[in-house]
């Protein structure tokens, strides 16, 4: 494990025998529709790009699909009761666009909306705050057939869909997130092709990124007009990007990757502009002719909160000849215009995803967003780790995941002490689920899921997290 961030100085928050969080700090867990719901063809739901992608040979490990997943669609009341037993105060879930609006256009599918009405009512009945994400990567397949996110019209269709959901749930849902991790949708879906829809074109990825943000801004405008009391935000997956050495080439490599991973989204959403160095880096990929007058004003529509997903750090270096091929998010095709940058591993502990464990990087990320971009309330909307788990005598002990959570919560606590307006933490994930292209081979959950029987077993990390919530803090070290 990385060394956890040092606890804050005495007097900033109540020290006592524990490291306490501020009163009202929001404790929750997160999931995504395609990863847990199942019921892929029930209740009027039609295919998304992830249905198509996962049913295409060679796209996912073992040919796994989300057809059944965790069967949450049928087991939702029991799952909400489990959330209540764990003491969750908030639950971050996503709405399946093709369940609510088959085909991505036209009238709402009331049977699909009814599922989310029941979910919200069940959460409220258990005093759990619904935290709704409109888009967690499941674009309706007909919209992809019409051009997908590289096509400008998809942004307008997203705003229409947002309005349908707001009309149905806006009287009971206060917190709204437009997009989850648009970097993944754009650069993994249209750049490297390792995520749905599986296209590999750097120019398409850049256009997709812009139109995702345009859709975000249009959705914010629609939601603001119809639900002025709603708390609106976006969730970005952010990384500290560190040069491998102080050499000029490594420093420039870090600048380039930081531009694509972080500033590509932070600057338009929170500053209303693209960084000049980023557009220069992408000159051979895109002339940004898809950016129309007024787009950036829409994209930077005022928000109420900012969500940050944090998992790891990027350490990068200048190009060398005959570099070893890289995979997944290290793949050159994820980084158009900077394909030759090398991602360096440091020999530190990693998760089962081969992501380096770096809790201090969370402090850096939170401080940077607050210092350089916004005074808005920040929320950690995802943070978690995949490890190999085993059921032994009906129990699942996961000390590595528990230690990961502990270190990152201490980092979050340190960020608060440093003045960051961090207001909540959502563990990823509530339960084991369909981990996208990795299928069911990677487990992020605090609750173990037997995919054959669908039995749920809270892991030791879940029992530990329940105690953290109860105490609103951590044991002092």
UniProtKB/TrEMBL annotation:
PROSITE patterns: GLYCOSYL_HYDROL_F1_2
Active site, per annotation: 181 (proton donor), 382 (nucleophile)
Enzyme class: hydrolase
EC number of the protein: 3.2.1.21
Organism whose genome encodes this protein: Micromonospora inositola
SUPFAM superfamilies, sorted: (Trans)glycosidases (SSF51445)
Protein name: Beta-glucosidase
Lineage summary: Bacteria, Bacillati, Actinomycetota, Actinomycetes, Micromonosporales
Molecular-function GO terms, alphabetical: beta-glucosidase activity
Positions bound to substrate: 35, 136, 180, 311, 428, 435-436
């Amino acid at each position: 494990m990385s060394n956890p961030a040092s606890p804050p100085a005495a007097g900033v928050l109540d020290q006592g025998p524990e490291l306490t969080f501020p009163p009202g700090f929001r404790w929750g867990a997160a999931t995504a529709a395609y990863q847990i719901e199942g019921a892929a063809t029930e209740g009027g739901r039609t295919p998304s790009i992830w249905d198509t992608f996962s049913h295409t040979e060679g796209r996912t490990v073992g040919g796994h699909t989300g057809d059944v997943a965790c069967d949450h669609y049928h087991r939702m009341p029991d799952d909400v009761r489990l959330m209540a037993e764990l003491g969750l105060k908030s639950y971050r879930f996503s709405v399946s666009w093709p369940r609510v609006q088959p085909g991505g256009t036209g009238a709402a599918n009331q049977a699909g909306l009814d599922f989310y009405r029941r979910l919200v009512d069940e959460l409220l009945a258990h005093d759990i705050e619904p935290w709704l994400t409109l888009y967690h990567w499941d674009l309706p397949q007909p919209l992809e057939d019409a051009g997908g996110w590289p096509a400008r019209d998809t942004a307008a269709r997203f705003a229409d869909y947002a309005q349908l959901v707001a009309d149905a749930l806006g009287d009971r849902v206060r917190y709204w997130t437009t997009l989850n991790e648009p970097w993944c949708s754009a650069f993994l879906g249209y750049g490297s092709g390792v995520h749905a829809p599986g296209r590999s074109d750097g120019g398409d990825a850049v256009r997709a990124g812009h139109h995702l943000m345009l859709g975000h801004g249009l959705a914010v405008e629609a939601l603001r007009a119809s639900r002025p009391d709603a708390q609106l935000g976006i969730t970005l997956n952010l990384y500290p990007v560190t040069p491998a050495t102080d050499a000029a080439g490594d420093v420039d490599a870090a600048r380039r990757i930081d531009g694509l991973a972080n500033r590509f989204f932070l600057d338009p959403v929170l500053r209303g502009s693209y960084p000049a160095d980023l557009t220069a880096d992408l000159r051979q990929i895109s002339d940004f002719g898809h950016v129309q007058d007024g787009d950036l004003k829409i994209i930077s529509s005022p928000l109420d909160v900012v969500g940050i997903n944090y998992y790891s750090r990027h350490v990068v270096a200048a190009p060398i000849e005959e570099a070893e091929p890289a995979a997944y998010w290290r793949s050159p095709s994820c980084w158009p215009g900077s394909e030759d940058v090398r991602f360096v591993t440091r020999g530190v502990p990693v998760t089962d995803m081969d992501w380096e464990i770096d809790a201090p990087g969370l402090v850096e990320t939170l401080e940077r967003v607050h210092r350089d971009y916004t005074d808005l309330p920040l929320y950690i909307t995802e943070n978690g780790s995949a490890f190999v788990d085993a059921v032994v005598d009906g129990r699942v002990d996961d000390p590595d995941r528990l230690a990961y959570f502990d270190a990152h919560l201490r980092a979050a606590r340190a960020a608060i002490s440093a003045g960051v307006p961090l207001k909540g933490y959502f563990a990823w994930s509530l339960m084991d689920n369909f981990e996208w292209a990795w299928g069911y081979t990677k487990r992020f959950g605090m609750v173990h899921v037997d995919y054959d029987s669908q039995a749920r077993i809270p892991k030791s990390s879940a029992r530990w997290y329940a105690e953290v919530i109860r105490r609103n803090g951590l044991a002092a070290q």
